[in-house]
Structure formats: C-alpha cells, structure tokens
C-alpha cells in the first residue's frame, strides 16, 4: 500500500477524520500516551487495534548478533503485548471492538533463515488464541492474519538469501493484506475466525499444516529452504 503523508491523508479524508502520532512499539509508556491521545480524538472509542509493526532478520541463526535477535523480539512480540495491554481498557468500552494482529505463515512451522522471526510470529499466534478466549468475557475479539511473502522491502531486500522465496515467489502485495484487514475490521465479531490466511497460496499451506504429518511438513520446509 502506498505510503501517504499526514497532510495528504488529512486533505483526502478531512482533518477531523484523521489522527496521527509517532510510536516506538517496544516502549510501553509511548503506547499509553499515544492510545490516550487517539481515544481523546476519537470521542472515546477504540473499535479496532491493528498490531502491524514488524522487522525481520534473514540469516543463519548463529550469524546474527544477539542484539538483532533481541530487537526483533522487542518489536514483533513485545510490541504486540504492549499494544494489547494498554488498549484493553478502551476496547472494553467500545462495543464490537477487536484486535487484529499481523502474524505470518512462518508461524505455521519454523522457517530456516528466519528462526527468530518465526518464533516471534508463532508467539503472536499463540497470544492471539489465548487472548481471544480470555477477552470474550469483555466482548472483545482478538484475531490475526497470516500472509506468506509480501512484496515489501522486508522481503525483497533479502530475497537473494532465501531459497524459499525464490521457490514460492512473491504473490502478495501490501494492498492484498490491507484489504484482508479491512474486511476483518468490518465484519461482526461473531463472524471473525481466529486465524485468516491471506491469498490462495497461503490458504493451501495453512490447510496442509493442519493435516500433513510433522515429518512431511519438516521435510518440505527444509527442501524449499535448501537444507
């Protein structure tokens, strides 16, 4: 999806329909301040929280400095935990509210060259499942989307390193993911699945992950990654 500046967005939607801020998702205090600012601007509502921030580290595990592994966890997992924790009071006050977490097909089985990224996304998937059960008592749904490889800088900058990407190709755009999230934001809560794969290719892998034996999933994953 094309990046737009705040002023351009305000001209398109009208200034009264937009609110922008800067947030380091790994900083819980910034989450608290920005959510309070947003809810004040929205008239007390938080209908949808989308946890989208993420980075990747594409290399053999032992070749990546520990600081880079920790930074990925801070953003991809702690950022989601921070957002959910500080958003819940506002979500509880908004009927029909939901959280939409950006997960990944890499959460279905650990991906070589993306070990820590896969681990963080698997944790996001598990967090989504548990919070969706816990927060039903508040009337809040927690769901996620699972795309495969998306045509963004996160993937294209490292495509030469990843044989899995070369084998499967890049079949999703940021717009595909955005449209999926928009549909999930519009549906009634009772019609939301906990996990939503994005695109036909991802849907096929999602189905196979449920029915194929573990040894086969491991074998296919290793072969596609060149191991």
Q: What fraction of the residues are assigned to beta strands by DSSP?
A: 5-15%
So how many helices? 9
Q: Can you tell me the CATH topology?
A: Rossmann fold
User: Into which percent range does the helicity of residues fall?
Assistant: 40-55%
Rounded to an integer in angstroms, the radius of gyration calculated over CA atoms is: 18 Å
CATH first level: Alpha Beta
Q: Spell out the CATH superfamily.
A: NAD(P)-binding Rossmann-like Domain
Strand order of the largest sheet: 1-2-3-4
Low-pLDDT residue spans: none
- The helix-strand sequence is HHEHEHEHHHEHH
What is the mean pLDDT?
91
Shape: globular
Strand element count? 4
Which architecture name does CATH use?
3-Layer(aba) Sandwich
Biggest sheet, in brief? Answer: 4 strands, parallel
Q: Give me the secondary-structure category.
A: alpha/beta
The span between the termini is 33 Å
Number of spatially distinct domains: 1
Q: Can you offer a commentary on this structure?
A:
Helices cover 51% and strands 9% of the residues. By secondary structure, the chain is an alpha/beta fold. Strands 1-2-3-4 form a 4-stranded parallel β-sheet, sandwiched between helices.
A few lines on this structure:
This protein is of the alpha/beta class. The protein has helices spanning 6-13, 28-41, 66-92, 115-134, 153-156, 163-168, 174-186, 200-211, 214-225; strands spanning 48-51, 98-102, 141-147, 195-198.
SSE topology:
Elements: H1 6-13, H2 28-41, E1 48-51, H3 66-92, E2 98-102, H4 115-134, E3 141-147, H5 153-156, H6 163-168, H7 174-186, E4 195-198, H8 200-211, H9 214-225
Parallel strand pairs: 1-2, 2-3, 3-4
């Amino acid at each position: 999806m094309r990046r737009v500046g705040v002023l351009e967005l305000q001209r398109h939607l009208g200034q009264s329909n937009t609110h922008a801020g800067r947030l380091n998702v790994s900083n819980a205090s910034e989450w608290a301040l920005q959510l309070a600012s947003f809810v004040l601007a929205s008239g007390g509502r938080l209908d949808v929280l989308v946890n989208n921030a993420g980075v990747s580290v594409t290399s053999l595990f032992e070749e990546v400095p520990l600081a880079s592994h920790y930074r990925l966890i801070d953003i991809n997992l702690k950022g989601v935990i921070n957002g959910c924790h500080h958003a819940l009071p506002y979500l509880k006050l908004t009927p029909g509210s939901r959280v939409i977490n950006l997960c990944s097909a890499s959460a279905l089985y650990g991906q070589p060259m993306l070990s820590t990224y896969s681990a963080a996304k698997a944790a996001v998937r598990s967090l989504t499942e548990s919070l969706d059960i816990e927060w039903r008592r508040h009337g809040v749904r927690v769901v996620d989307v699972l795309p495969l490889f998306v045509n963004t800088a996160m993937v294209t900058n490292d495509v030469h390193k990843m044989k899995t990407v070369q084998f499967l190709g890049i079949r999703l755009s940021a717009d595909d993911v955005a449209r999926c999230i928009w549909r999930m934001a519009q549906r009634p809560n009772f019609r939301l699945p906990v996990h939503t794969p994005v695109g036909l290719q991802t849907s096929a892998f999602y189905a196979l992950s449920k029915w194929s034996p573990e040894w086969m999933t491991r074998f296919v994953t290793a072969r596609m990654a060149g191991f």
